[in-house]
Amino acid sequence: MKILITGANGQLGTQIKNIINNGKSEIGNIPETVKSAEIFGVDIDVLDITDLKAVKEYVHSIKPDVIINSAAYTNVDACEENKDLAFKVNTLGARNLAIASEEVGAKLIHVSTDYVFSGEGTEALKEYDITGPVSVYGTTKLMGEDYVRDFSSRYFIVRTAWLYGYNGKNFVYTIMKAAKERGSLTVVNDQKGNPTNAEDLAHHILKLIPTEEYGVYHCTGTGECTWYDFACKIVEFANIDCTVAPVTSEEFNRAAKRPTFSSLDNMMLRNTVGDEMRPWEEALKMFIDNVK
């Protein structure tokens, strides 16, 4: 089996590669067929997914059995200022990979986001709930999902949220650094979602590969909280002497609007390959213990 991973040097791509190399994740074993797979990890320096001709040529040259698209323009505020770049990466990049995967008969796993929802509800969102993004980031990611549906017949669209991993920048590292340097923090307390360890997400993506359980998936840490709750647990688990105070989104005056409530329900996982996502506090504690 050949697996092509785009965005291979990012948080998720790095975890996917590490788990395959180890033959298991923190959750447990991965499928035997995946353990022996030949991995082609690429990032922007090797393959520009916004270039359809380049994508087709590269995919045809290696003929992967599976493509995992973890590449994305994820700076939510910057997307508001750089709409064309967000569209090229998040929308056209997904389209290009879908077209190329279909041409070689490869399965496509496309990673998406909770930001495809408006965030106006109060109950955890299921895969069939109506989307309605409120930012350029969310809009371009949703259109990327639509193109995957249009051009690929063997796809898994996997939506996740509040992702953090061992490699790269993320909320956990940001809070730990700021807490140590400042001793006091203010964090938004009116947005609710699901912190997700990249290890857990990668584990479930690899579980999907041998199957034909195609469709849309939600894959987030179990349980929900606000960014303030999340930050409090980070400081607690990292044993940092720091006070954390709650504030409202309005006090931050950011370029992009965020969903107020974007907690996801992993219904599709439960009813197909199984939902082994850890409680978000448990996954976070292991992450911090490991980085400490």
UniProtKB/TrEMBL annotation:
Keywords: NADP, Oxidoreductase. SUPFAM superfamilies: NAD(P)-binding Rossmann-fold domains. Residues 1-291 form the RmlD-like substrate binding domain. GO terms for molecular function: dTDP-4-dehydrorhamnose reductase activity. InterPro entries: dTDP_dehydrorham_reduct, NAD(P)-bd_dom_sf, RmlD-like-bd. Its EC number is 1.1.1.133. Catalyzes the reduction of dTDP-6-deoxy-L-lyxo-4-hexulose to yield dTDP-L-rhamnose. Belongs to the dTDP-4-dehydrorhamnose reductase family. This is dTDP-4-dehydrorhamnose reductase. The lineage of its organism: Bacteria, Bacillati, Bacillota, Clostridia, Eubacteriales.
